[in-house]
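Researcher: Can you fold this with glycine in place?
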Amino acid sequence: MYFKNAVLGLIFFLFAFLSVSSAATETQSSPIIDYTWPFHPEYSKNGMVVSEDSLASQIGADILSQGGNAVDAAVAVGFSLAVTLPKAGNLAGGGFMLIHLNTGDKNIALDYREVAPLNASANMYLNQDGSVNNDSIRYTAKGTAVPGTVAGLVYAQQHYGRLKLSEVMKPAITIAEQGFPVSFALSQSLESRKERLLVCETSAKTFFKAGKKDYQPGDMMKRTDLANTLKIIAEKGNSGFYQGRIAELFVKGIKQHGGIIRLEDLKQYRPIERDVLMGNYRGYQIATMPPPSSGGVHLIEMLNILENFPLAEWGPNRSKTIQIMVEAMRSAYADRSKYLGDPAFYKVPVTGLISKLYAKKLASEITLGKARNSNKLGPDNPIPYESPQTTHFSVIDSDGNMVSNTYTLNFSYGNGHTIAGTGIVLNNEMDDFSVKPGVANAYGLLGGEANSIKPGKRPLSSMTPTFIFKDGKPYAATGSPGGSTIITVVLETVVNLLDFNMNIAAASSWPRFHHQWFPDVVYTEPGISADTIENLQKMGYKIKEGRTLGSTQSIVVIDHNQYGSSDPRRTGGAAIAAKSGSKTIEHK
Ligand code: GLY
């Protein structure tokens, strides 16, 4: 904790210094070495992997050096994080992967979000008096949705990878079987969630030493059961997880922990390839995730609103800039509460929500220098404009193929339960549904019919894996964890890059803020100057200072130079360059 505070203190001291003189810093940065900002990215020409865990990043970079492409490396990272970053890396969660194939200039949005079990029902989390039983959603397997991660990673690898599944899974199997050094971040995270994990005997055995003693940084941790599960998947692919022995153990464990997932649920699970959601912002093309994530729709909606204001002229973290961005956030999250859900069950007005005309209308309702009141502002009407604890990693290879992937168990370590004999930690993703209209979920998000529970439906997400293109060429890959704050964290990263011309390390380090309609509060990180906060308060904003927001893992490409940055807010992450390019072997 002390170390993290010291790092944040240093970053925000630097920022406080800059916030006094930031008007002078808005010069055009050099495309190759940008010394304008006091934060510097990693560099590569051969490919790069950026994730929240340095060992997983190294594994991905090694796969690139061995001739794998960006998808091979991403899949290797996805399986490795299940071993080394178990709070969010997973086999039994779900997520979204954006893939850019530079040859053929193709973008793919892979939805491997979890789904509600086939015998789920709208009122399944309501007590007899109609109140919501949050404990059953969040801390028992009744809140576990049918997992999508293995199906998603295997699908991506088999359709778009270059190596064999067994090759890309080998490093994850090796570290799980032979052990890996516990990072400072992992030891801290386990300590902070000890109470949740000790409720489950298997979690206690998996994540603590004999006598329930904590792992210290540098201790070796083995994940033998997980290694066996990974071996079966490496050999059998999807059916190794969704059918056979692992599926049987999974269903048995789910039942023991109060859940309702059956073998039939697992057998039916399929990832979905969707059309990438496209927008544009100040001449750049934004490629992002469509529903059932709300992330892409609202990222584009907010960018469209912001395009009506001269943010570059105003500068980063000025009260004017923050005010307009907060108002854009307020409008987007109000719309989210009504219009967003699984498109297979609810007609999401995507085209209306991302229309420039609709954004112009929303922008015209913002008064510069004056806070609006969320109680007086509900979801707007995009229809007339119709004519649609999580972790992120980004990968690029030397051919310019990119992956931007966000996946999750929802809370840190999901509901805290681990399935005996498998090493698999359970998600509590059912909490992302709107379990009762007007009752907020764990992230304070409100929802209604669009996101109600139905069998086989995907819960609404905020995950926002995103690419930026310039003149059709890859410019950036980014994304973040952070529940409801994911969308605004990605928004601020995009604005820092495109409006304020920051390099990716500065764009990732800059102090952040967040608003989500309700609660009607602006959350601010340390480092936004006292004057700015005071100005915002005078405009009528309620400010809650102190919370850190997100953990972006991003890459920017300028003239084939690749720059990576792992967010400094969390320790343990790394941007790691591949030693050599990925063109050395033939496609499989
Ligand atoms: N579980 C958080 C999200 O998907 O938004």
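Model: Folded with glycine in place. The mean pLDDT is 92.
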